[in-house]
Amino acid sequence: MRPTDSELEILSVLWEKGPSTVREVHDVLSQTKDAGYTTTLKLMQIMHEKSLLQRDASSKTHIYTAAVSQEKTQQQLLEKMIDTVFGGSASQLVMQALGQHSSDKEELNKIKAYLADIEKQEKNNRK
Questions:
Q1: Where does the secretion signal sit in this chain (predicted)?
Q2: Residue 43 near residue 7, CB atoms below 8 Å
Q3: Are 68 and 52 in contact (CB under 8 A)?
Q4: Percent of the chain surpassing pLDDT 90
Q5: Least confident of 40-44, 75-79, 96-100
Q6: Between the CA of residue 47 and those of 17, 110, 121, what are the distances in Å?
Q7: CB 64 within 8 A of CB 14
């Protein structure tokens, strides 16, 4: 199941902060967007029903945690974007991202190292 943009914002807070109350999530979200507490509460309840969040109701204040991993969610969204926006071409995505984003030396070195690892794995798979 792919989360909506609003659900992704909530998941991002939970991935970063860990288990949190609705108030804690709302406080973080309200720093960048104008959303009411009840809207955040309702969204989190819906996300719980959709199994995107887990809820601990053992105390008066419910504690929510992400039920989906950040890595798996990123992978699903990226696969969908590559298929729909870039016609299935991962290289088109990479070239667009690098062309539109200014990368520092450290980031470029990480990209180069990752590409070198991929090439090494491909060579080992051919043997």
A1: none
A2: yes
A3: yes
A4: 68
A5: 96-100
A6: 17, 35, 38
A7: yes
Sign of the CA dihedral running 26, 63, 71, 76:
negative
| pLDDT tens per residue across span 89-119 | 988 888 888 887 778 889 889 988 998 999 9
* Model pLDDT, residue 2: 82
Q: Are 17 and 66 in contact (CB under 8 A)?
A: no
Q: Indicate the SS3 state at residue 124.
A: helix
Phi-psi region of 51 (alpha: psi -120 to 50; beta: other; left: phi over 0): left
Tokens of 91: 């290289």
Q: What pTM, to 2 d.p., does this model score?
A: 0.76
